[in-house]
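#struct-pred

JT: dropping the chains for the assembly here, can someone run the whole complex?
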Amino acid sequence: LTDTTGVVLVVDDNAANIAVYQKIIGEVRGVVSKCFTDSNEALAFLLNERPILAIVDYRMPDIDGLSFITRMRSITGRSSIPVIMLTGSDDEKIRARALVLGVHDFMKKPIDKRRLQAFITHALRTRLAEPPEISP
Amino acid sequence: VTNPPFDGDPLPAIDLERLRDLFGNDKESMTNTLKLAIVAFSALCDELGMSVSEKSALAAAHSLKGSAINVGAVQIYDAALAIEASLEAGESLDSVRGLIGRVNATLDRFKHEAQLLDSLRSQP
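RK: done, full complex below.
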């Protein structure tokens, strides 16, 4: 294992939010963040990378968080990536749809630093416990 | 900052406890994030000011509210929340113009306090 064993994907159109998440994620040993303000660039990244966790804002200008997760899940090998959705909404319909898409947790802003770090640590342990991928 | 709006509100524009919790002693990351926040908030305030529909103003106010509270910009958060609540209650865009003016004033104060924090960081 190298010092860095996992990538956390962050998709949020606000650069100030991204800076906050980068700081929080950067304090967790063994992970690095890969952050995108453009959801299409994030989807392109997912074609080649399999992050241990995706943190996705619900409200984005091009596509909403649910549409992003739907598209992410359609990429081969990306159907089971754990997802945290950032939303201030208590709308049960949105939350129900998110759960159907496999969203593991919801977080409101301001983001709870320690809760997010605990989730990342858990996601990393889960990934490390998986059997290694076998190349064809 | 050309016009710090010290309009009698004694409360700070920035929640220092939130910044300490996020950044600890990493003052460089803190000031860099505040600079990014100023750019992001300014863009959202411009969006609010140029909104031609309640829907677009609501979207900008919601984004501003979330990003503001994330970095401890408590006055901007309060002002954006007031706009969001008014629009969700069915008020017209024209009726919230005064609140949009208030959010701009809180942005000026945020910039001023962020500059103060940056100048403190620069001191040996």
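JT: nice. DSSP finds five helices and no strands in chain B. The radius of gyration of chain B is 15 Å.
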